[in-house]
Design goal:
CATH class of the largest domain: Alpha Beta
CATH architecture of the largest domain: 3-Layer(aba) Sandwich
Strand content: 15-25%
Protein name: Indolepyruvate ferredoxin oxidoreductase
Distance between the termini: 58 Å
CATH topology of the largest domain: Rossmann fold
Radius of gyration: 30 Å
Helix content: 25-40%
Number of helices: 27
Strand order of the largest sheet: 3-2-4-5-7-6-12
Number of strands: 24
Number of domains: 4
InterPro entries: 4Fe4S_Fe-S-bd, HACL1-like, THDP-binding, TPP_enzyme_TPP-bd
Keywords: Metal-binding, Pyruvate
Shape: globular
Pfam family, one: TPP_enzyme_C
Oligomer: single chain
Largest sheet: 7 strands, mixed
Structural class: alpha/beta
GO molecular function, one term: metal ion binding
Length: 733
Amino acid sequence: MAERSFVEEVKKLRLDQGEIFRGEGILAVTKALLESGVAYVAGYQGAPISHLMDVLLDAQDILSEYGIRFENSASEATAAATLAASVNYPLRGAITFKSTAGTNVASDALANLASGGVVGGALIIVGEDYGEGSSIMQERSHAFAMKSQIWLLDPRPNLSSIVQAVKTGFELSEASNTPVMLQVRIRACHVHGQFVCEKNRASTFMIKDALENPARDLSRIVLPPASFLHEKEKIQDRWPAAVRFIQQHALNEFFAEQADDVGLALQGGCYNTVIRALNLLGLADVFGNSQIPLYVMNVAYPLIDDEFERFCRGKRGILVLEEGQPNFVEQNVANILRQREIATRLHGKDLLPMAGEYNTATVLAGLRAFLERYGKIAAESAVSACQVRIPAVTLPSEENKDQARNINAAPPDPLEEAVHARPPGFCTGCPERPIFTAMKLLERELGQHHVSADIGCHLFAILPPFNLGNTTMGYGLGAASAAALNTSLTNKRAISVMGDGGFWHNGLTSGIANSVFNRSDNLTIIVDNSYTSATGGQDIPSSTALNPHRSTGHDIEKAVKGVGVKWVRKIKRTYDLKAMIKTLREALTTGEPGPKVLVAQSECMLNKQRREKVKTKGAIAAGKRVVREQFGVDPDTCTGDHSCIRLSGCPSLSIKPNPDPLRTDPVTTVLSSCVGCGLCGELSHAAVLCPSFFKARIITNPNRWERWLHPIRKRLIGYVQRRDARRRQQYDF
């Protein structure tokens, strides 16, 4: 069950020649694939590109009409290896995944693919997860493209440019026999716009043709001596062919080329931000008409020497805008200018930050510093031109720092001092929360343990209130990252945590099988919540939901035993805190040798609520009786200790003033967002806390008996409350 359905949106994929497509960037990419005659598509979900996999899944009927093979890959490496179909056959293939984490996983397959080259167009669509809003290590795809000499497209973030990049990406790949990487940045994935459609078309060479007429080219296999010739071929044949194609088809764009004697060279993905900054400086309008020359590199790699010479000749200085470090583009441009004896002054990281996303405030400060240096704007003009407040930005030079501080300094925000940072955490009712609650309770008894964390929702346990987790090394690598901490010199065992998505992605072999092979004595907890929840709730092999297009229902416990684990326990309801603590205690103290695996099962509450809320809403509308459980706290019984909050961190637990005038500590309260998972009640008993929690049944469309009984209960409760209020009044001052 994915995070959302695109069943209605995918109908736009049937738009014909000349019709106007209006929608989101992800959907536009799918339409471009259909118009390009793609033969197969594969990938692995991950932000910010997850929705592309969801769209493709919902578009199965349309894909099948054109004979397109679509596959939810087990990992990014699996997806990348799929492109092998384009090595010997004129089949256009596309894969997609998150970058750079996904690119790292797929690196072996991509390096081999780039070495031997392709006959059919091979397009790698990566969701460039860099900068604000990112969830991974701060790296870029650029380095990988350079390392393997895969051409890198970075189109302007509008639908027409993105769609055109998909189509020309296939053509560039075929013209240079090289795979092409198309990076789609976070905002480009979700940008809305329109473009004129072309006809969808089927591949002229079908997959069945490849199977019926198998081809083999020994020179494409990465084995000596062919592998040595591949490197030579890249430089002598493929690179020049790519440069010719890029120039002939004008993939890079020049705007206002002769408008001034200074200019800006930027990657296509930064175009909207640069135009906005120029607009705030009064040097461009909202339609993108710039008074400053722009060279927009929709192809971020390779750079085109002739185009840079054309842009730089006659200019006093240029500013290169390139997010992140190292500054690959700036170094390359410096080399071009030096070799071609061009005297244009080069600026880049001297006026812009070395690292971090170039948002509008950052670019505005850098452009102002550059244009002031060449006398294009006066320092005071920036204030009158900028009608909106732009946050102050720290610049590399002290002079520019002071300048930005004076111009853009904003009064301190009192909220920043009064409101503390709120760390991300588990959803209300998340079945993973009781696992870490049990670990915290057991910590009181057995002491602290080293915990190797993994990528996924469970990684939130590293943050307050649990503070559990020492390292995280990659998706499905939780168990592997504890491999060095396996010794008989102590009775302490390391604990590893991984999700079911990470288990099927990488963990079964890299973690579990490896621990069996090396006779590990550590404990691995596999959180089985039925989906790859962190990426949007997509199905995996162990999903309990029936999927018409995939084979699900494969048991993790059987897979673990299949690779040789002897000590395996399964808890089918993670909210059973007593059972969780008992099983964890056994796993950490048993004398039985070998790796220990605990499979903790309960469905992702977020996905469950998406399904159940629709049913509940329909039942209520139909007048059916619906019962919803919710927990509460008796304020008279609550002691104000708040251990329940510290040991669960549930967002539905909060505090309110103590009704007892003799007690000053606030009491715990349960908000209406409670989904009735029961952890707080379980926690009260397991941790021997106060018995202040109660469970209430909220009934919609009650039956006759319940309607008759309700006023009697209400009067009785009201009488008790009024009596209690009178008793309290005698203590009031």
